[in-house]
Amino acid sequence: METIRGRRSREMNAIELQEALAGFGNISLDLGTGDGRFVCKSAEQNMKTFFIGIDSCRENLRVNSQRKLSNALFVIANAQSLPRELSGLVSSVSINFPWGSLIEGLLNNDAHVLDGLSRVSCPRAGMDLCLNADALASAGWALDSGANQIERVLNAAGWETRSRAGLEARDLRDVPTTWAKRLAFGRDPRAIRLSLRKSSL
Ligand SMILES: C[S@@+](CC[C@H](N)C(=O)[O-])C[C@H]1O[C@@H](n2cnc3c(N)ncnc32)[C@H](O)[C@@H]1O
């Protein structure tokens, strides 16, 4: 898989990945990581967990991927074809404020996205998903009905809902991602957070 640090990209094979992950009990994947702020903040605060940020766009990752964190890694990949090297390793997935083909994949039950998430995650993995009104509107959905649709798709793919909550501007200010900050101070800060768990079936 293609890893990135600053302007440099480097292929990492499964053996090298296993070496990097050795000793970490939990592996967390942030899909659609954007500039990687969430991964860096989380890695600083949870030294026992290894954080992997994935995005299809390399430009936004140039700065944060240079941070020297022993428990963080950035990968350039598309949600429709998640790296084989990650298969079965991930204990928690976060998807914060997806847009474009990532949110479309969730809304439209794209088998490549859903199968990929299922493949990379271990049994009973958790998933946290934050959806915002603007991104859903761009895909042709209202906030509640779009969140309902994604919840249905994920439930059918074997992810059980644990909780669902509406987020407002003051909640978004506490979410450590760049997009959450933008939304918190923007014209439409409405969002929904879904927490799910991969069912044992
Ligand atoms: C609104 S930004 C949110 C970024 C970050 N999660 C945050 O909260 O600051 C959505 C991100 O999803 C990424 N994205 C969209 N479609 C994707 C796909 N198919 N595969 C991987 N990343 C994708 C975009 O490149 C972008 O960085």
Structure keywords:
single chain, 201 residues, alpha/beta, Rossmann fold, 9-stranded mixed sheet, 9 strands, 31% strand, globular, binds S-adenosylmethionine
The chain-level mean pLDDT equals 97
Q: What structural category do the secondary elements indicate?
A: alpha/beta
Query: For the record, what CATH class applies?
Result: Alpha Beta
Encode the helix/strand succession as letters. EEHEHEEEHHEHHEHHE
* Percent range of helical residues: 25-40%
Q: Quote the distance from N terminus to C terminus.
A: 29 Å
Instruction: Please tell me the CATH architecture by its name.
Output: 3-Layer(aba) Sandwich
Unreliable runs, pLDDT <50, ≥5 residues? none
- Count of the separate structural domains: 1
Number of helices: 8
CATH fold-level label: Rossmann fold
Q: How many strands appear in the DSSP assignment?
A: 9
Radius of gyration, whole Å: 16 Å
Widest beta sheet: strand line-up:
2-1-5-4-3-6-7-9-8
Q: For the report, how would you describe the main beta sheet?
A: 9 strands, mixed
Describe the structure in your own words.
The chain is of the alpha/beta class. It has a single domain (2-198), classed as Vaccinia Virus protein VP39 (Rossmann fold). It contains 8 helices and 9 strands. The chain has helices spanning 14-21, 37-45, 100-107, 111-120, 133-138, 143-156, 169-172, 178-184; strands spanning 2-5, 8-11, 26-31, 49-55, 72-76, 90-96, 121-132, 159-167, 191-198. The protein has a 9-stranded mixed sheet with strand order 2-1-5-4-3-6-7-9-8, sandwiched between helices. β3 (26-31), α2 and β4 form a beta-alpha-beta unit. It is globular, with a radius of gyration of 16 Å. It binds S-adenosylmethionine. The site of S-adenosylmethionine (SAM) has 21 residues, from α3 and α8.
